[in-house]
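fyi for ur records
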Amino acid sequence: MEHINQTTPIRFILLGLSDVPQLRVVYFFAFLMMHAVTLSGNILLIIVVTMTPKLHTPMYFFLSNLSIIDISFSCTIVPKILMNTLSMDKSISFLECAIQMYVHMVLGAAESILLAVMAYDRFVAICRPLRYKSIMNNRFCIYLVVMAWSVGFTNSFILVLPTLTLPFCGSIHVNHFFCEIPPFLLMSCVDTRLNEIRIYIMAAIIVMSSFLLTVMSYVHIVTTILKIHSLKGRYKVFSTCASHLTVVTLYYGTIMFMYIRPHSTYYHTMDKIVSLLYTAVTPMLNPFIYSMRNKDFKGSINNLNKQAKIASSLLVAFYKILGRLWEFLPIHLEKHL
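which gave:
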């Protein structure tokens, strides 16, 4: 069995989603469409929140940070997939792979914490409405976001570095479409149980604690909602949480499947599909899930659209005036020369 020296630069071969040549063009356009929708949807959300004072609230502050994470997820994973899908060279350098793995793990942990923070925000808004502004003040919100990103960077350092220092013997073919920890553990020629234990510990600390905090928040929320006598009132209050609950279900379900189970039971096709869900599909859907039934957000988009139309009309009028002046000036100068 060939042994690859870890001290020399090496390249890995990403096998991708499928080895069927006829599907390459289909996958290329599917990923291109997802990437375009992800970027446009999340950037629009950030712009609308930034430009609308009415949306300068904790919920939209956290949502803007979630959009930044989703954009980063897509930009870290999808461009390389697009390149490899149509290219004959499906290799990725050790450095590229390390960066991709590190950033991906940072974003995954940060999103887990942020979703729990958003659940806590909904808990305070519904169960402690009179104290909401004093509890969820600007300073505390910034602290929570900084904490989410800090946990992400710490988690990535603890898990990625030991994975990349493993000896990779024999094949350098990664049966995945990007550099993720589980397939790399299978590629190593040494016992990786210590690496798996690290993953379980970090998953228990970050993913499970975030999930439990989210569940506890929603238990209190549901209890409070059930105390409301009016069915219309219950629906109105619960509708403020429905979008977040949908995103939480999608995200935690896929993350737990990938990282909280024995890595000896690595199912190549299923794991690729699950990874695809939380790295490409969920980031694309998040802005639409949050804005679809949100009247404030829709109203803000309509207002900005009206302002844009007014601005474009004024710009057209300004250019028409400039055009008239451009036509008038030569005639006026000829008369005085």
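Residues 1-9, 329-334 have pLDDT under 50 and may be disordered. thats all i got for now
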